[in-house]
């Protein structure tokens, strides 16, 4: 019986990848909880499991007395001495219990608690696994696309996660069997188990992709200062290096543009502007408005972080961008409100960026 039990635990450990000690602890607790019902729920039942010797010892600790006050916790001296000759009044004695004495109901109780323990262990293990990936870039396999909602069911190792339609890159078409890069935005514990929130639209995805493709970012030689993104359309990323001999923009573009090209492919063709960060805010804002040329940047209000960028007349529409996208992304990248003005001072309208950091 014991051999079968320990073999079953070993198989369970391999199948569920749960530490054996954890299972033995839960099983021992389950046996104690079940057996305590026979003793009015009193805390006198103990269970020791020795996997090396493949032995399970279940026993009740009772007080040796001359006169019984509580039959659950007390035992008469003469009965105690039948179990252990050295038993004395005022001392305690451990009375071994046989498994068959538990009965079917207790056994079912124990099984239920064991199952709960296994579920809890699986949830804890999954939570730890998810938390280790929090705010990281991971590869997932598309398992299924919901034809109604458009949500994608993804396989992440042995786990399943849902990528909602609004977290997918606009215009992107996913297919079952695709391997895609996703960003883990957050991990939370819920009543139904660990919940992992994933995205392909989050700026963190771009940040992690650059860390993967550009060794100088990974080793800290180049630093990503900020990222602003409108997923599926355009991203701006500001990079910086303390080493004057290193060109951070060139390093991110890579030989023949290969590094940034790999990232663009991973983002389903999203355009990427790589700009050089500067502590000089006017210089940084000028760079952030690329690909437009900037004549000058004037600080209007340092406290509210608002400025005016003057551009050549023929660069006005480029600086503002389609539907204001270029100046909007530049504003998110720098954290400054940017008002665009043509060099001549004559214009039909102007574009301004929102004060929203990326």
Q: Can you describe what's shown?
A:
- The longest helix has 30 residues.
- The C terminus is likely disordered.
- This protein is elongated.
- The chain is α+β, with helices and mostly antiparallel strands and 358 residues long.
- A five-stranded antiparallel β-sheet has the order 7-6-5-8-9.
- Helix 2 runs antiparallel to helix 4.
- It is 34% helix and 29% strand.
- It is built from eleven helices and 15 strands.
Question: Keywords for this structure?
Answer:
29% strand; four-stranded mixed sheet; single chain; 11 helices; 358 residues; five-stranded antiparallel sheet; alpha+beta
In short:
The chain has helices spanning 2-16, 20-36, 77-83, 103-132, 203-213, 215-218, 248-253, 258-266, 281-288, 316-320, 325-334, and strands at 45-50, 55-65, 74-76, 92-96, 137-145, 152-156, 159-163, 179-190, 193-199, 222-230, 234-241, 271-276, 296-301, 306-311, 337-342. By secondary structure, it is an alpha+beta fold. The protein has a five-stranded antiparallel beta sheet. Strands 1, 2, 3 and 4 form a four-stranded mixed beta sheet that branches. The protein has a three-stranded mixed beta sheet with strand order 10-11-12, sandwiched between helices.
